[in-house]
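SEQUENCE-TO-STRUCTURE ENTRY
===========================
What this section holds: a protein sequence and its matching fold, both as plain text.
Tokens: labelled as protein backbone structure tokens, with as many entries as the chain has residues.
Question of interest: how does this chain fold, as expressed in backbone structure tokens?
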Amino acid sequence: MPQGLKLFTGAAHAELAREVASYLKIGVADATVSTFSDGEILIRVNENVRGSDVFVIQPTCTPVNDNIMELLLIVDALKRSSAARITAVIPYYGYARQDRKVQPRVPISAKAVADLITAVGTSRVLTMDLHAGQIQGFFNIPVDNLYATPVLLDYVRKQYDAANLVVVSPDAGGVERARSFAKMLKCSIAIVDKRREKVNECEVMNVIGDVEGVDALILDDMVDTAGTITQAAAALKKKGARRVSAACTHAVLSGSAVERVNKSVIEEMIVTNTIPLDSKQQQCGKLKVLSIASLIGEAIRRIHEESSISSLFV
């Protein structure tokens, strides 16, 4: 078994790394991450890692390509420094939505990124709420895909009345996620079906399920431009929902997402800190950010101790 747990981080989410380190009661290991004037990334590991069990926390969020490259170079530096095992902790896996060929002559980008991460010498991957579960099969190394469900569930149970709540999937693809969440809350589910009836006509949002007079909680794995989720919220309100909230693991919030959420009927958007929020995103008064540091930290501890982490897959 590798000796000594060490936790490194790139520039993507140093705050999360410090929270995880605090949970594990260790410090963040010393490494230099900087950029040359031409844009090339410079990595230097400033302490001995020979024979160590090393974990690198680096969500591959915006700027996606820079953060992926940073992760690859950190892993390579650790490998060349004789680390015994290197686990890439990727709370948010960039390119996850490009997991299959949807038209001719396009790449399967999620697979290409997996190949890169494996090729530099990564021993295993720890991630959270992959957009597509089959991405685990893109790697030839162990992949642990955690879920933010325990963190979201704990908050919802404390802040919402489950007896007057319906969990809503914003599209057909998220029905299983919504069903599982609703089962744990012992409440019903609804589905928003989005379709375009005719060419050049606006999309119609049909609500399947009874939401009249109850609180609706839209559940998704991520919120990006917030177009679908805000349209779904409007459709639910139109169908008589008393209050509409949303819960998502990954707060990508690109483009005009913050403005859309602020103008929408959504009263509260619950997200986790898998992705750091910039100053503009923090201006969204409807956001409630929950920390997944203890969940990540516990998974790291169990991996290091070679104990089971299956109980964390809720």
Observations:
- Helices lie at 14-24, 64-80, 109-119, 149-159, 175-185, 227-238, 257-263, 293-304.
